[in-house]
Amino acid sequence: MNLFSRKETIKIFSNNSNEKIDNKIIFILSIFLAIFSYTSFYSNLHASSIDSVEQWVNVTNQMFYGKNDFLFSYGPLYWLTGGTVSLYNNICYWIMVLYLSLNYTFFWVIILCLINKSRNFIFLALAFLLFFHNPSLACSLFMWPFILVAYWAYDDDVYKKLDRKRIIFLGALVGGLFFVRFFYGLVGFLTISTYLFSRFISDKKISLASIFISTVILSYILLGFIIFNNYISLLNYLIINTQLSFGNSVDMTLDIDNDNITLAAVFVTFIILNFYLYFRKKSLLITANFLWLFLMKLGFSRTDHYINYFILPLSTLSLIMIFKKDKLGQISFIFMMGTLYFLSSNSIYPGARTMNVFSVPFNSDIDYSSRLSRIYPDFTLEKNVVNLIGESTVDVYPYNNEYIFSNKLNYFHRPLFQNYMTLTPKLDTINKKFFVSAERPKFILWTAAITCTASNCDPFIEIDNKYVLNEDPLTTNSILSNYHIVMLTKGKGNIPILLLEENNSYTETKETVISKTVMKFNHWYMVPTATLGITKVVPHFEFTIAGRLKNLFFRGNVVNIYYKTYSGEIKNYRLNILNSISGVWVSPLINKMNNSGFIGDNVESIMFQTNDINYFKPNFESIFIKSEAPKGYSQSSNNTPESYFPIDFKKLEIFNVNCEGHIDSTKIVSIGMKDDDEKKMIMTNGWLALSTAKGLPFDKIIVTLIDNKEQKIFFPSSTQPRNDVAQVFNSKQLSDSGFKSTVAFPDLNSEYKISLAGYVNNKLYYCQNLITSLPTN
User: What Rg value do the Cα atoms of the chain yield, rounded?
Assistant: First the structure.
């Protein structure tokens, strides 16, 4: 049963303008909406011109600004196809999506209507499988005029109803195509005009052809006056495109010769096409042969263009053989598809792109481990590390198993190999048991957290601003107790990596209770000192009934832990609530890795902070514990700000200079401290560089508090990535120029100013130009 009866078959450009909305309208609308959705999601925006000579992508939108005219083989309206780095504005984007969607819809609706009448769906599916692959067929942007004239050729009633209005509309449309891309307009003009001329031979009527040609010329001139700033561009656009086409064919050819088999296959497509047309559709002979010659020239004059400008459009042209249910057409179509598939699936020159639908998207001649290593070239380890590991088993903690595959190491990972997914004590216990079993790997590569992208970053800051050592504390304890440090090495971007090796025996982490206390949220609590070990706290959070229901039917809340170090700096991290019962790392607050292991600051006090008082019970018991670990895992710096940097201020050369940088914001905040012990904090951020011209950041950025007597107090800052600064000054090194600092200061009754200083090569540079007053509240 036909999808549509002949009466209901869609009549493009018919006179039946009052036809009621029925199945055919629903059919067209469904195709349009599907294509519109696809096009808006997979927008055809061109990549940038970085590492490319394609400068045109940066000036495609030039008709919207300035006084220059965009004169190239792509026209000033080429942005309609998405051929630009970025659309000029939101309106242009949706116009582009609409234009492409209408083009693709028109193209496929006509094809499906004709295929529906011939019932040759399986042959259309074959062409789609071998060549088309998706509805946004690029060659439809210039092949739709041929599909249209094929529709006229196969439905003479529709052709006979063509009138001046429709021909004028078509002429104006094709005239506009010249400004989208010159050869789009040229193909449309010659396709429709040659068909109308061929009908003139049989019908002895020249009026439609003359009206069409006149309209194209007139619309080209009128639209050119609107689009171009300078009228001379109308002529220059023609000259440039004729010369570019000629120059492309002569001086941009590849230094290759097509073999005889390729040339023979190309000639076979010509024979098949004309054989079918001569016996079944003579009215398309002139137009189809013109297109074949044009496509052959277009596809093989550069040779590397042969798939996009010969194979794909000729596959589209070949659909005329299946627009009618006819054995000759079906056989001709199969031979054409086979010939084109031979051309598309065999490299016609070394390194040529192919379209073998049955090929796999990788080189199966190369072994699996070598293929994976090539995917991650930036994760190559130093040779001495690879040689030391050898064939031994190795795991990566907490992230980046790319190092394993890049270096072809013997990967034997823990059961839950992504630490941010070890969300509960039961899951954490599975990994813990693994590292005290006989199956554990001999080595572990302890890498930086995934947010660490620079050599001077904090390697312990996790996704969602979590702290690595609090993600899965049981797993961490098991590693620290059963592996020792072998060496420090460097990974991608010179980020530090520790190589750990298993101990001779298996041990459980020894933990002793230091003190117990009942805590409240949003209150500070002093941290008891645990010498020669790690201080942790075990908070026994209790959900309220409302909190349990919220976890069950919606989502959990956020809990943050704040650390105040003896240097005066305050840091905060988001906490893993469920795993907190296994112990929250407190002191020393590790933030560096070196040859000796982990280094961090001693913590004076901590605070658990939440904004929802109904999620937890307000009071909860907390136990401070001492957790023993091998030497090197818990080194702490001294408690003075000077040693925290660490900088010996007495030996510094000091300079007062005008610095390159900016203090983006400075504010004073309070984070829920007890009313009788309120202390406020200074939060500031920005960027600072030693030299933007040379791309030199400072080794350390120091926030400087200046009182009324010009006395200076120094506070540390943490590095923040500033890709925006790096882009502005075209230097990747300046991505390390950002800073953030949160510090507590006991006396804010006096007036203070905030400034910056930079440290490098035992020199301190005071920034006399970067000074801002401290807010009073």
Answer: 36
